[in-house]
């Protein structure tokens, strides 16, 4: 621990000193005062805002443009970093006469609000300004694919799960869990992790209104600046933030046959200070889920048939503050609290056969799983006159408390009950520095320290405590430059040192540590103005989270217990990708081939234990996986968009000698998504989609293929400030049948879950003020492997309809 603290302290001091040096500018002079010029552009006849009007600021002494911007939906524009002086503001838009306004700022009054500027109709050519259109829905960058959700009108009234289904290369299962190329991914919000995401990505996504998402970044080849996350990659959800003066916000609500949600967002901005807050809640009705579970061991078997009626409740609230000291220094802070509850009663019939003797039993059960999480961060950012140069320091605290209670009453007289309380606390500090040597060469360097403590208390007064410390120190550097006008390169290396110390449930002290080096590189060539190819390599790691490590023996299902494994090693993977992307007359094709080699693959395994089966996690072996992804978007008409994504990858495990499984060959996993979105006159939108998931394999199990489908009809109201719609999911089938078969050397299981899926719901959203977003640098802890929500046994995951 002392060694780790010294490493982190040295890194932070080094980064701070390096960052401060170029800002001194030879004399330690303070930066000049700069301000901002703002205005509201309106039509002179209708007095309505002119959106996407171009505003250019020209220095009257030099006659050269110095800055500019585009107006938002309210016609507002703010031009930043304006030095005191005399300027000519040139305002124009197609169909209007260009307007020139003289503007002056002084050191004593650096900010100048021009107020309303009226444009008159005309056909003048805008010689002094550049006209820009709306963003494309899909953007392809050197190391990521970007889906601009705000450019997709069909997102209104939905949640983040609906948005993720439309993002290239992603697949979303029936529970709302997200995968990229057949692997789990780390989901970040504005570049930072969340305790809510750590517990359940699917639940957390349902608490984010689609209207609040600016874009979604799919990062298949994260640079060394990011945590060395697992092989899947990173999904970064960029939310919206208002830069406009005054108050703006939104309200979203939905009511349906399965669940009801409500969200409220508010942003207030005055001068250099802004504040934002959000409140949200969700309630899912208790609906019966049926599970038929068959378990066979040598000399015995058990058949379990029952139902559970779980309800789900969620609540979150957040408060954020942001202040610009001047044009170069900014400080921000944000706190977010989340509470999730899953649980309810269940009952099942147990038919046991031991040596030919048959016994019939009845089990009445209750389960209570509650998660509480608090995330708080503080960020400082400093920029300079040099475009692109930036130094930042950030700190974050994450605290969580998870409770898992259960009781089983068999035949009215055999009662088992237990309580497991898990507590986690995580402190993070990081610093980053970006220095652009030129417009085409950028260098980045940074350091980070993560200090985690996990405690799990077992039973009622048993005194058993699992106490786990994991501390990570990291340093990185990256460089990006153009080899030629059409060939770009970005690469780097990251070093991470991990120290682990824990007391097992028997009180034994165990220590472990490891040092890893993570290189990455991507080279991209533009073949034409709209076609690019790229080749990328990276090495990644995934450390197991509490769900994988916790040794608590969960007996909520009396015939199939569950416990974690604190002795798990992290997964290490090498990834190579060849990608191709082209845009043709508004349509897009993105194709990629990839290879992944993963060591110490973590999967769940089944084993015999005292006449029943027990499920845990293990490093089952190593794997080589080959795959391909094809995403296409086509517009048969300007208002009709067809979108499809096909992902295929191989699954093959080279297993440990001491572990046997049912899947020892090579298998194919695939996912197919198809979507049609059409806009009609009068603000109407129609959307239809379907998802096909192939059978899913692990070394010891196979889950059969599944298909689900849905659609939505939406109508703009209140002058396009509001939306009302009808959403459908599997309207013709109440249940989705999920069949899983598992086999080990001494156990055989089948599990059939009849999952209540059908949803018919109404949604409403309303925006007051235009929410225009910027992305803040935040802490990103993306190194922990997260457990995916899966259909489980009785009381251990069944009935958790999303």
From TrEMBL:
Q: Which residues form the Outer membrane protein beta-barrel domain?
A: 383-766
Q: Which residues form the TonB-dependent receptor plug domain?
A: 146-234
Instruction: Provide this UniProt record's keywords sorted from A to Z.
Output: Cell outer membrane, Membrane, Receptor, Signal, Transmembrane, Transmembrane beta strand, Transport
Q: How does it sit in the membrane?
A: Multi-pass membrane protein
Q: What is its main location?
A: membrane
**Does Cell division appear among the keywords?**
no
Indicate the family of this protein: Belongs to the TonB-dependent receptor family.
Know the name of this protein?
TonB-dependent receptor domain-containing protein
- Native source species: Pedobacter helvus
